[in-house]
Structures are given as C-alpha cells and as structure tokens.
Amino acid sequence: MGCVFCDIVARRVPAHIVYEDEATLAFMDIAPIHEGHTLVVPKTHAADVFEVNPEDAAAAMRTAVKVARAVKTAFGCDGVNIFQSNGPAAGQTVFHFHIHVLPRWAGDRSIALRREYFAGDGDLQRAAERIRQTIGSES
C-alpha cells in the first residue's frame, strides 16, 4: 500500500499546501485538533524518527519553526505545540515522518499530557546512564 504523504508530495492526492521548499512540504491536517493544525513532512520517505536521515529531520524542524511562527500570527493563538509521534503506541497513524504544528489557546484541553511516572534522583541517574551507554554503543 502506498504512502498518502508521498502522494501529497507528488501531487497525486490534493492537499492545502501552506509552504514548500526543496526538502519539505507543509500542509493542513485533514483531521485537525484545532483550526490551523498543520503537518510538515520531508519530501523523502522515511517511516519515522528511527528511519529519517538527520538532514531531512533538520529540514523538517526548520520548516516547522517557520510554520509555527506563521500559525501564531495568523490565528492569534497563545502558544503552539510542535510534536512528532513514532509507532502506533505513540499515536502515529501515517507512517511517513511528520511534525505536527498545533496552535493552542489558554484553557484548551485538546492535548493533556499527564505525568504517570514519578522519578527520584536515583531513578533519573540510572535512566541517564542507560541512555548514555546506548548512545555510546551506537556511535
């Protein structure tokens, strides 16, 4: 089965495009959480953060910053969430790396991140060490 975001990049599927450069495309989410909810994709397909090359990820973030500034001005929102999901457990439904730019207003409850893990200093130290060791072994 094909990738709908690749089809949008190739103009085989219509989308409301707000920005395009050599490496990225930004377009309106068809299932928006709020008015102005925009998606940014690299033009080169990668399923998620684990597959995307660093240059495409950096280009997508540069575009997300540009779009976030425009969304904040255009909609007069109080803030903007920029987020990216990887895998079904994280809520990813389209398997082409993409960044959400979501306008937010004081008091809205569209996304509520709740703390489910209470860590002491020792817990943080152990977690940091696991991550450092993994980064070191992947270098």
Question: For the terminal residues, how far apart are their CA atoms?
Answer: 34 Å
**Low-pLDDT regions:** none
Structural class: alpha+beta
- The appropriate CATH architecture is 2-Layer Sandwich
The CATH class: Alpha Beta
**Average pLDDT number:** 93
| N-to-C order of helices and strands | HEEEHEEH
Q: How many individual domains?
A: 1
Tell me how many strands there are: 5
**What does the radius of gyration come to?**
17 Å
Residue share in helices? Answer: 25-40%
DSSP helix count?
A: 3
CATH fourth-tier homologous superfamily = HIT-like
Shape: globular
Outline:
33% of the residues lie in helices and 18% in strands. It has 3 helices and 5 strands; from the N terminus they run H-E-E-E-H-E-E-H.
Key attributes of the depicted protein:
five-stranded antiparallel sheet; 5 strands; globular; HIT family, subunit A; 139 residues; 3 helices; alpha+beta; 33% helix
Description:
- With 139 residues, the protein is of the alpha+beta class.
- The chain has a single domain (4-110), classed as 2-Layer Sandwich (HIT family, subunit A).
- The chain is 33% helix and 18% strand.
- The protein has helices at residues 4-9, 54-75, 121-138, and strands at 17-20, 24-28, 38-42, 79-83, 99-104.
- A five-stranded antiparallel beta sheet has the order 1-2-3-5-4, with helices on one face.
- Strand 1 (17-20) and strand 2 (24-28) form a beta hairpin.
- The longest helix is centred in the middle third of the chain and has 22 residues, at 54-75.
- The mean pLDDT is 93.
